[in-house]
Each structure stands twice: as C-alpha cells, then as structure tokens.
C-alpha cells in the first residue's frame, strides 16, 4: 500500500521497495500503526531534477486497518522520517543545461564544487571556472560561487554578472518525506542529500 502511494505521488514506473520491521506485521496492521518502515527507490524525478539511490527510514507510519482493507491510500501519515539521496554530477549538469547554464560540475576538495563552462557576459563569450559552496536553503540546494577564474581579468560589472550567473538553486521536489532539516555533502560521486521530516502526509 505504501509502495503504491509513493508510486502514485511520484509517477515512478517501478514500485519502490518497502520493508516493514518490528513486531509481527499483522499486529501492526490491526492497530493501524507501523513502527519501522524502509523505502528504497532507484531514481526519482521532478521536472529537470533527478535523484538517485533514494532511501527513507520511517518511524510511526499510520494507515488504518479499514483503509488497508479498502485499498485507500489517500492519507498515509508519517510521524518521523530520515531520507537520503544522491544528486550525481551528470544529473546536476543535466539540470544546469535545462535551466540555461551549460556548465560542468565536479568536486574540488574542501567541500567545494568546481563549475566550468563558457558564459555570455556583456555580449561576449568567456570561459569561466568557479569554486562554489553548496548549502541547503528553503527546500532547495543553493550554489554560490566563492572564486571566479577567467583567462582575462574581470572588471567589477563583469564579476558581478558572472557571480549572479553562477548562483542558482536546485529544488528538492523529488524528495518524498522532507519538511525540515536538509544537509548536503560534496562527495566524489555527487551531492549527498540528507533530510529529516515530521508529520508528513502522503496522498493529501
């Protein structure tokens, strides 16, 4: 039932894997509360954003026995959730191209990203490399450059325009259970995202 609710909410073609832990499942079903549930989805997408290896650990999943018998997934309530996912650099590049920023991203050490590409500024194309930080902000990842590098020195206006160009959000819409507490870590294979949630309702 939870797999179907997730599938209906996200539109994934394959149902996610769901495991129920704890006391006998029948007893949990009769009381309408499941103590410990894990959900795994290979890939989740929302618009141009695609996340991989999505894993959620849920505590206190409520689905009444009556709704279970009726097959009703309109309201599945989750007390607490911890979710993690990976935004690969290939998928980040794909998102950047979709949003009009033909840039390539890679890890640069010290928790930074390196973004490189050719950017139009004041009517001319400039090859640019930027070192940027990634932080969570209002349900999105916000990328901000800390250092710009170009073959030709920039004047103040050009630097301001390029800084603006290399500053962008990545929405976290594909996540299932996030409502607060997002952390992000720059890893060799992509951006590792971890979230926490409470009082999340699926199907509402």
Description:
It is a single chain. This protein is an alpha+beta fold and about 200 residues long. It has two domains: about 1-85 and about 195-200; about 90-170, no CATH class. It has helices at about 1-10, 25-30, 65-70, 90-100, 155-165; strands spanning about 15-20, 35-45, 50-60, 75-90, 105-110, 110-120, 125-135, 140-150, 170, 180-185, 190-200. The protein has a six-stranded antiparallel beta sheet. A five-stranded antiparallel beta sheet has the order 5-6-7-8-9. A hairpin with a 2-residue loop joins β10 and β11 (about 190-200). The mean pLDDT is about 90.
Beta-strand residue fraction: over 45%
Note the main sheet. 6 strands, antiparallel
Strand order of the largest sheet: 1-2-3-4-11-10
> Would you count the extended β strands for me?
11
Any idea how many domains?
2
**Structural class determined from secondary elements:** alpha+beta
The residue ranges in which pLDDT falls below 50 over 5 or more consecutive positions are none
């Amino acid at each position: 039932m939870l797999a179907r609710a997730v599938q209906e909410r996200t539109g994934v073609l394959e149902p996610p894997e769901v495991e129920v832990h704890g006391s006998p499942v029948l007893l949990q079903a009769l009381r309408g509360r499941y103590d410990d549930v894990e959900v795994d989805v290979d890939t989740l997408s929302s618009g141009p954003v695609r996340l991989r290896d999505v894993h959620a650990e849920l505590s206190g999943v409520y689905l009444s026995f009556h709704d279970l018998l009726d097959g009703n997934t309109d309201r599945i309530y989750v007390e607490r959730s911890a979710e993690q996912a990976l935004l690969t650099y290939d998928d980040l590049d794909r998102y950047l191209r979709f949003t009009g920023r033909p840039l390539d991203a890679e890890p640069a050490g010290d928790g930074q990203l390196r973004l490189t590409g050719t950017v139009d500024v004041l009517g001319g194309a400039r090859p640019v490399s930027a070192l940027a930080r990634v932080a969570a902000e209002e349900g999105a990842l916000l990328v901000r450059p800390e250092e710009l590098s170009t073959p030709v020195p920039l004047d103040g206006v050009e630097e301001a325009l390029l800084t603006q160009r290399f500053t962008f959000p990545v929405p976290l819409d594909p996540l299932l259970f996030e409502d607060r507490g997002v952390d992000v870590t720059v890893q060799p294979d992509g951006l590792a995202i971890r979230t926490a949630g409470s009082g999340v309702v699926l199907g509402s």
